[in-house]
Amino acid sequence: MIFRLAILLGLTGAQFVFAQDRATAEPPSPPTPDQAAPPVKPTVEKIDATHFKIGKVTFDQKSREIRFPAKINIVTGQLEFLVVHVNGKVHESLFVTDVSATHLNLAFTLLRYPPSPELYALPSEAGGLSGDFPVVPAEIKSGARIAIEVEWKDNEKTRRISINDWIQHATTTKAMPLGPWIYGASVIEDGKYVPEFTGDIIAIFLANSAMINYPGDDNGNDDVWIPFPKRVPAVDTEVTVILSPFNSNKTASKP
After folding, report:
1. Contact 143, 246 (CB under 8 A)
2. Where are the beta strands (DSSP E) in the chain?
3. Residue 239: which pLDDT band, with cuts at 50, 70 and 90?
4. Phi and psi for 145 in degrees, rounded to 5?
5. What is the DSSP letter of 209?
6. Given pLDDT bands bounded at 50, 70 and 90, which one contains residue 126?
7. What pLDDT band is residue 162 in, cutting at 50, 70 and 90?
8. Are 125 and 131 a contacting pair, CB within 8 Å?
9. Across-strand partners of 175?
10. What is the CB neighbour count within 10 angstroms for residue 25?
11. Count of CB atoms within 10 A of residue 28's CB?
């Protein structure tokens, strides 16, 4: 079944995205002529009975866990994004990655995560964005909530924690509360999947252009979240970002 769906989706490129034409909260920055995003034609490879691969993105059909490689990009300064593509807004993101946003979204689609547009502001009649948001059924909201963890090598030991533990509120000095992030899939504009050409993958400061957004307090403030001092490893440390269904009963990890 998964391969039939992959073939159908691969034939239509980015059209598989579960997204509607919605206005963007942060206008996407079109690529310069020498940074044009090439068409992406996903191919799903089988690793074993439950594990599959799309480019550099791997996922487990049974646990619905998605993994992709990234690097630590900054250890000081304000954060608007958790993950961006290497050609994106790298000056304000904790991680950078070279994975395709289209490949990542296809993994979400194949694992049947329902995208929730609840954080994407609706356009106003006067132009721009309103303060209103779509009404989303409870079952869609629940299914779109994900946990984000990071795995890395600390000397010879492999460590894994909630990514929230690596983000600090600049005013309260406390770690970001343990809670879900929301998969919304982002938008398609002019026939293009927006995260593929903006590089906006996971946003802390709300962005309709991002595939995943942080739903907690101060997500509309672009100057309160910073990397947690002494917890985040050095710049260029290689990590694996892990996305999975959010479990509200899971306890906070130890940084």
Report:
1. no
2. 44-46, 51-54, 57-60, 66-72, 81-85, 93-97, 145-154, 157-162, 167-169, 181-183, 188-189, 192-193, 200-203, 212-213, 225-227, 238-245
3. very high
4. -85, 125
5. T
6. confident
7. very high
8. no
9. 168
10. 18
11. 21
Distance separating alpha carbons of residues 33 and 203, to the nearest angstrom? 25
The C-alpha atoms of residue 105 and residue 119 are separated, in whole angstroms, by 17
CB-based contact 85:98 (threshold 8 Å): yes
Query: In angstroms, how far is the first alpha carbon of the chain from the final one?
Result: 39
* Rounded Cα–Cα distance for residues 151 and 163 (Å): 9
Structure tokens at 22: 């919605």
Are the beta carbons of 179 and 218 closer than 8 angstroms?
no
The answer to whether 56 touches 98, Cβ cutoff 8 Å, is yes
Contacts 24+ apart (CB under 8 A), 125-131: 128/23, 129/23, 129/25
Q: Are 191 and 81 in contact, with CB atoms under 8 Å apart?
A: no
pLDDT for res 218? 94
Two tokens at 148? 């984000």
Reduced 3-state DSSP string for 64-93 = CCEEEEEEECCCCCCCCEEEEECCCCHHHE
pLDDT band of residue 249 (cuts 50, 70, 90) is: low
